[in-house]
Design brief:
Layout (H helix, E strand, L loop, with lengths): L2 E5 L5 E5 L4 H10 L6 E5 L5 H12 L3 E6 L2 E5 L7 E2 L1 H6 L5 H10 L1 E5 L12 H9 L3 E5 L2 E5 L7 E3 L5 H11 L5 E5 L5 H12 L3 E3 L5 E5 L7 E4 L4 H13 L3 E5 L7 H9 L3 E4 L3 E5 L8 E3 L11 H8 L5 E5 L8 H7 L4 E5 L2 E5 L8 E3 L3 H13 L3 E5 L2 H4 L5 H7 L3 E5 L2 H11 L1
Parallel strand pairs: 2-15, 3-14, 6-7, 10-11, 18-19, 22-23
Antiparallel strand pairs: 1-23, 1-24, 3-5, 4-5, 7-9, 8-9, 11-13, 12-13, 15-17, 16-17, 19-21, 20-21
Helix pairs in contact: 1-2, 1-4, 1-7, 4-6, 5-6, 6-7, 8-10, 8-12, 10-12, 11-12
Bound molecules: uridine-diphosphate-N-acetylglucosamine.
């Protein structure tokens, strides 16, 4: 079992290059099978979730050619199977994007029903509502979602909740329906816009992505394209909070600063200096930060995927903070782990009260999920002494070369898989 071992106390200083957005990549790879021509996707992050999606696509017969770590060619002309097995869904929920992609292109898809996960129950009723509204028969049989349609017809869909997954999934199917679909109360996240741009580059006719209403005029066929994925706002935000929590000075490179507005605004509230450039953002934290109030919301609100990172930083800030988690019900597990490092927090329902402490002391903790795992590494980098983070497979799902990037900023962190390697690290850092 791999773990991260961290010796805290060094402020992170320097520049770090941000990769392509994992959540955009997962949907774009699924959408890439919707044409029979070859699609080239660039700026893919080399993370486990993306690799599983590539396997799922080749599992149904598409040709996948990895040109290099960040580039792949996909050709969907050889697909002979419309069934996505539970093994893939268990590893990445987002393989459900193949439901919208296959239904749109072939009018048939069978995808294992995703269960809950560590951050909550995560229903997919809005996805199914959208497919049904387009005229598909959708049944749940033996743990599978079976969707089929003679034809998909443009329609008017009002989503009951703002969902990134449902917006993207239904948008993909509607892009190949007859006539006009109007989707209201949709998610406005940057990766929704990126997927719409990608589909349009293949010949789709989608307008309004990034606003509350998306209008899609269905087309019969898509064509080849070459497309580069947007930068990952969550990876960028994670390094920005790592700078804040360690009282450092970090510039994240290759980002779209506009996508980071909510994160930047909170860092400023807490007393950081933030400098924005065309495609970079610098965060400087001098001294102890201040408490603040946070509520997670759909974009452009403060992202739920950045909640644990601000949580660990607030646990070291002066004063009392509150965090309200309005998207997922089970996203405070990391606070229990953080208590082992000295944090003082109290969770009631969907809100957490955090009394900032002056310092954390290194401890052994477990990553409960992807973002919380990254946040615990930030806590370790800010703590006195040694921290060991278990279950780092979660972190590897979504962060490329995480420990290398942190080391390049002066963080003392290594991936270890034996007691011997732990001892070696301890000897090295003294
Ligand atoms: C995506 C992201 C995830 C991020 C989340 C919110 C990917 C692969 N994952 O997840 O990292 O945390 O957006 O920004 O892109 N809901 C329903 N019914 C549905 C669908 C969703 O009730 O059919 C609820 C969910 O339980 C949740 C809320 O809507 O409370 C938002 O979920 P959603 O935006 O769909 O998240 P995901 O797309 O699963």
């Amino acid at each position: 079992m791999e773990q991260y071992i961290i010796k805290g106390g060094n402020p992170l200083v320097g520049e770090v290059e941000i990769g392509g957005a994992k959540n955009a990549a997962l949907a774009i790879l699924a959408a890439a099978i919707m044409t029979d021509e070859t699609v080239l996707v660039e700026n893919l992050p080399d993370v486990n979730d993306v690799n599983v999606m590539l396997e799922a696509i080749s599992g149904i017969g598409a040709m996948v050619q990895r040109i290099d770590r960040h580039t792949a060619k996909i050709n969907g002309s050889t697909i002979g199977d419309f069934n996505i097995e539970y093994d893939y869904i268990k590893k990445i929920r987002a393989s459900y994007y193949l439901l919208g992609a296959l239904l749109g292109k072939y009018r048939r898809a069978e995808v294992a029903l995703p269960g809950g996960c560590n951050i909550g129950s995560r229903p997919i009723d809005q996805h199914l509502k959208g497919f049904r509204a387009l005229g598909a028969d959708v049944d749940i049989e033996h743990g599978k979602i079976v969707a089929e349609a003679e034809n998909l017809h443009g329609t008017h869909i009002y989503f009951d909740v703002v969902s990134v997954g449902a917006t993207i999934n239904v948008m993909m199917a509607a892009a190949m329906a007859d006539s006009l679909t109007i989707m209201e109360n949709v998610a406005k996240e940057p990766h929704v816009v990126d997927v719409a741009n990608f589909l349009n580059s293949m010949g789709a006719n989608i307008r309004g992505a990034g606003t509350d209403v998306i209008r899609i005029r269905g087309v019969k066929k898509f064509h080849k394209t070459e497309y580069s994925i947007i930068p990952d706002q969550i990876e960028a935000g994670t390094f920005m909070f790592a700078a804040a929590a360690t009282k450092g000075d970090v510039t994240v490179l290759n980002v779209i600063p506009k996508h980071l507005d909510a994160t930047i605004s909170k860092l400023i509230d807490m007393g950081c200096e933030v400098e924005e450039f065309d495609d970079a953002v610098r965060v400087v934290a001098k001294g102890r930060l201040r408490s603040t109030q946070v509520k997670t919301l759909p974009y452009p609100g403060y992202p739920t995927d950045m909640q644990p990172q601000i949580g660990v930083t607030l646990a070291l800030a002066k004063g009392t903070s509150t965090i309200t988690e309005s998207i997922f019900e089970n996203r405070f597990k990391y606070l229990g782990e953080l208590a082992r490092m000295g944090a003082v927090t109290k969770v009631e329902g969907n809100s957490a009260t955090i009394e900032g402490v002056e310092k954390f002391s290194g401890a052994r903790v477990s990553a409960p999920d992807l973002r919380a795992g990254a946040a615990l590494c930030i806590a370790g980098l800010a703590a006195e002494g040694i921290t060991i983070v278990d279950d780092i497979v979660y972190i590897q799902r979504g962060y490329e070369r995480f420990e290398e990037k942190l080391r390049s900023l002066g963080g003392m962190i290594e991936k270890v898989s034996s007691e011997k390697e732990i001892q070696k690290f301890k000897l090295k850092v003294g």
